[in-house]
Specification:
Elements (H helix, E strand, L loop, with lengths): L1 H12 L10 E6 L5 H11 L7 E3 L8 E8 L6 H5 L3 E9 L1 E2 L11 E2 L7 H6 L6 E5 L8 E2 L2 E2 H6 L9 E14 L2 E8 L5 H11 L4 E11 L2 E2 L4 E2 H12 L1
Parallel strand pairs: 1-14, 3-12
Antiparallel strand pairs: 1-3, 2-3, 4-11, 4-12, 5-6, 7-10, 8-9, 10-11, 12-13
């Protein structure tokens, strides 16, 4: 009975795919998975088909949420999907910093929260809305001289970071329970939420790091319509049997 129920759910939940012609897959990236982990898992599930599989916009390992995958001929359109506006929800922790601007590294500085008011937190979003400049985190996938920054950072090497211009069309504070602050951000391609949160803490003459991040939208594609990796892999396995 359990197997019959599983097959009924799979049949009802998933459409008929044509991976060779090209499919756009909405995936809910699991916590601590890299974006390339997801691509590899799906690619391996499609064997023995030899297909191109790529993602349209990296998510950090400690982030979750919407990851767009393209297969087959649709991989030619990855740049188009990647350029779309993104929406995130998350949590920052005030009163401390980490070298990676998130939980990948341990706290290196702490600051008192005395004097940090809710009014100040709400007001601090204004300088980070609109067209802004930011540096990518030293612990990021940006390549410098062919090597990713996080590789250099883990070796303890310092690298000159290049300023980038991004657009933040919405920065909303949704909950304040110090030291935690929840937020919603809508931004352009290439925006580093970790850098934005770090700069936000500095603007308050304090510190801040990212403790939770979820991508909820990319262009017109929504997280609520995404597949779980395990469910999709199970479906593909059953289709082969």
């Amino acid at each position: 009975m359990g197997e019959d129920k599983e097959e009924q759910i799979v049949t009802k939940t998933f459409p008929e795919f044509n991976f060779a012609e090209g499919e756009l897959l909405l995936i809910n990236k699991p916590y601590k998975w890299t974006s390339f982990d997801v691509v590899g898992k799906i690619r391996n599930s499609l064997k023995p088909l030899k297909l191109k599989v790529g993602h349209a916009g990296t998510l950090d390992p400690l982030a979750t949420g919407l990851l767009i995958l393209c297969t087959g001929k649709l991989t030619k359109q990855i740049d188009t999907f990647q350029a779309e506006e993104k929406e995130y929800t998350g949590t920052m922790v005030l009163g401390a910093t980490t070298p990676s601007f998130d939980l990948e590294t341990v706290v290196d500085q702490e600051f008192p929260l005395d004097g940090i008011t809710e009014e100040a937190i709400y007001a601090a979003t204004a300088p980070f809305t609109g067209d802004i400049q930011q540096y990518p985190p030293a612990h990021s996938a940006v390549k410098v001289n062919g090597e990713r920054l996080y590789v250099k950072a883990r070796r303890g090497e310092e690298t000159e970071l290049r300023l980038r211009f991004v657009t933040v069309s919405a920065f909303e504070i949704t909950r304040i329970a110090l030291p935690e602050v929840d937020f919603r951000i809508v931004c352009s391609k290439g925006t580093y939420i970790r850098s934005l949160i770090s700069d936000f803490g500095k603007h308050l003459n304090n510190g801040a790091y990212l403790s939770k991040l979820t991508r909820t939208r990319s262009g017109n594609f929504l997280l609520e319509n995404a597949f779980e990796v395990a469910d999709l892999v199970n479906y593909l396995r059953l289709k082969k049997e």
